[in-house]
Write a structure and sequence with these properties.
The strands form three sheets. This protein has a four-stranded antiparallel beta sheet, with no helix packed on it. The protein is mostly beta strands. It has one helix at 103-108; strands spanning 4-9, 17-21, 29-33, 39-43, 57-59, 62-64, 71-73, 89-90, 92-95, 98-102. The model has no long low-confidence stretch (mean pLDDT 92). It is globular. It has one domain (4-108): Rieske Iron-sulfur Protein (3-layer Sandwich). Strand 2 and strand 3 form a beta hairpin.
Length: 128
Amino acid sequence: MSEWTKICRVDDIPVLGARRVARPVGLDVAVFRNASDGVFALLDRCPHKGGPLSQGIVFEQRVACPLHNWSIGLCDGQAAAPDEGCTPKFAVKVEAGEVFLDATELAGHALDAVRPVAGPARRTMPAG
């Protein structure tokens, strides 16, 4: 049986937008709301170049990454073809207008995911 953590009210998430949920360890979770008041949760990281999905544009049941416009499914985290890749999804439930995430997933799901470092690659010059 899952233990659920209250995140916010549905009305606290902008329509066609997102709200970020910080975790003590690991990347944030993005909680999205579409035009039909559907609520979805994904790791706040595009599978392409690590863009913050919470800053993307929500349409239907997808979000467009703000960096390169990849279309990511809100239900499954899967990139739309021809792009390939997937971002981890999180279980979410809505009861009486309140949004909950699975506490076990918040604490342990996708903790190894990291954001790429922007900018040119650093190289160590040999001594000599």
